[in-house]
Amino acid sequence: MNQGKLKEIVKNHYLNKELSVHQLDRLNLLNKKFLFQWSTPLVASFVLLFFLTFFYFKTPPQDIIAEIAYNHMKSLSSEYESQDLSVLQKKMNKLDFTMISSAKLPTANWKVLGARYCSLQGKMAAQIKIMNLKTLEVYTLYQAKLVNKNLKLLNGHSYQSGVAVKVWQEKGLVLGLAGKKIRLDFAN
Known about the structure:
Layout: H1 3-15, H2 21-57, H3 61-73, E1 80-81, H4 85-91, E2 110-120, E3 123-132, E4 138-145, E5 156-160, E6 163-170, E7 173-179
Antiparallel strand pairs: 1-2, 2-3, 3-4, 4-7, 5-6, 6-7
C-alpha cells in the first residue's frame, strides 16, 4: 500500500468519527482545569506585583519626616551663604532640580540664610536654613526632586524626636520644614 492511499484511508476513517457528549464534557473539564491551573498563579502574580510596586516605590510621609528630623537635629552649618535662592542655586550646581521659593513661605515672613547639600531617601537634596522674621527662629527647609509620582498624596505634619516637621509637595518637589514648632498654617 502506498503512502498516499494510507493517508486517504486514515483521513476517511477519522472524518466519520465523532466524540460523544460525555467525551466532550470531559475535554471541556480538562481545558477548564488547565486554564485554572495557569490563570490562578498568573493573576496572583500580577496582584502581588501591583502591591509590591505600589508599596516599594511609595515612601510613606513618616519615613521622610523621620529623616528630615534627623538631619535637622545634626544642626550642620550652611556650606553656601546667601539670602538669595538664585545665588545658592548657582553655587549648588550638582542639584538636578531648581530650588523654589515656596508659596507657603512668603518672603515677607521668611529670610533665606544659606544652604548645603544633603540627601532625602537616598536622593540629593537641598538643606536651606531660613529664619522666621516674626519670631527670629531658624528653621531648616528641605527640597528634593519628586522622583516617584506615587507620592501624590504626600502631606504630613508630625513631631519626631522633639522636632516639628511639615512635609508637602510643590512644583514637582518634595519640601520639608523642620524646627521647634510649626503651625499647620505656617505661611503666616
